[in-house]
Design brief:
CATH superfamily: Cysteine proteinases
Number of strands: 13
CATH topology: Cathepsin B, Chain A
Largest sheet: 7 strands, antiparallel
Helix content: 10-25%
Strand content: 15-25%
Number of domains: 1
Distance between the termini: 78 Å
Length: 232
């Protein structure tokens, strides 16, 4: 009898993804293990997330869009499980996920939450918005590879000796694999992209090895708190 084909409906995918534990999607590395998350729970390496389904494909190949939203949401102070973020973006997948997530779906994800989103299409424009933003996402079409990528990153975390703003990036394609914080009670070494300090560099340094043909930066700001009306 032929093996029954697993359903890839949004509901089936959600239930499957809900059964997974993000921190357990590890891989051997030297004498230790490689983690998909850093010590703060941010996703830093989608290559380990083949178990997470999106449409008819998996997140290791095409999951950078929802991962960028997940990480940026955490930078904004929000906490939402991976499968919930994935489910929300499922209708915005291109070719059932084979070509990732529609670019316009990412700013819409945050606008729906009351955030303000500023869009920059040049490096100079991004450097005016990104340092003071609560979270950022850069989208770029890779010049040296026929694909595109989304990367979430923080507001400014420092300056270079030349005065350029340094950011912390999450799930870039060029971060070094370094020792990271060990989970409690585990003796074997653990590694993650960026290590304990994280992937810290300038936006220009992130983009330079990719030779991008097109780029856009979404700078995201938390919703403004409404002032409470006081009584006499």
């Amino acid at each position: 009898m032929a093996e029954r084909r697993q359903s890839r409906s949004p509901v089936a995918n959600y239930l499957h993804n809900h059964s997974l534990c993000l921190e357990l999607q590890t891989a051997p590395w030297g004498t230790g293990l490689q983690l998909p998350v850093d010590g703060d729970g941010m996703i830093v390496d989608q290559r380990l997330l083949a178990g997470y389904r999106m449409g008819v494909t998996d997140s290791a190949a095409c999951g950078c869009g929802w991962i960028a939203c997940y990480n940026a949401l955490r930078l904004l102070g929000g906490r939402q499980r991976p499968e919930s973020v994935l489910k929300e973006l499922e209708r915005s997948l291109v070719l059932s996920g084979r070509m990732g997530t529609r670019t316009v779906a990412l700013p819409a994800f945050f606008l729906k939450r009351g955030c303000r989103v500023a869009v920059s299409f040049t490096l100079a424009g991004a450097e005016k918005q990104a340092p003071g933003a609560d979270a950022n996402i850069v989208y770029y079409l890779r010049g040296k590879h026929p694909s595109a990528h989304f990367v979430a990153f923080s507001g400014g975390v420092g300056k270079t000796p030349q005065g350029e703003t340094v950011y912390r990036f999450y799930n870039s394609l060029t971060a070094r694999l370094l020792p990271c914080r060990r989970p409690q009670g585990i003796e074997s070494p653990w590694y993650c992209a960026g290590g304990r300090r994280g992937d810290r560099r300038t936006l220009a340094a992130l983009l330079e090895p990719e030779a991008p043909l097109l780029k856009a930066v979404f700078s995201i700001y938390r919703p403004k708190q409404k002032a409470k009306s006081g009584g006499d």
